[in-house]
Amino acid sequence: MKKILLAVMAVAAISFTSCGNKTQQGEATDSAVAEVNIADEEADAAIAALTANLEANDANKFQEVLTSVKDKVAELIKANPEAAKQYVERVQSFLKENADKVKAVIGDNAAAAALVSSVTEIEPASILNSITESATDAKDAAVDAVNEKVDEAKAAAENKANEVKDAAKQKANDAVDNAAANVKKGLGL
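-> structure tokens emitted (189 positions)
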């Protein structure tokens, strides 16, 4: 009976242990999905604010919302590029669908027009590519810096070795010269 109980407990322990890793992986996946969902909610909020300002015909408030959209994109790019991509796509879709209304509201406001252009010109696919490229560039720069330090260390070690070797040669030459002088002195020369 004890053997059966121990076997059941061992199986239970193994199953709990193996489930723990799956839970952690599931939590990481759930976290990424949650961030994308939060980006969707924030995009909805931004779109609602943009819509309200379009209906109110308020170019200054529209510009403020676009500024916050641009700041949010920068924040999301750092935190979760996939969420940033989703956010940009949603806001761009709204701006493109309502391009005539946007132009009518912002009119000659150059700053608002520039913000609309900057938001609509972002390539969502390039967000992920730029993150990958900057990571690769950073890695290459780090490798170059490490290689440079290794080369400097090699050169310093070679210089030190040459100094020690030259000092040893000098001591050996001095010892030979002293021995020769002692031999000459002993011979009376």
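The longest helix spans residues 124-187.
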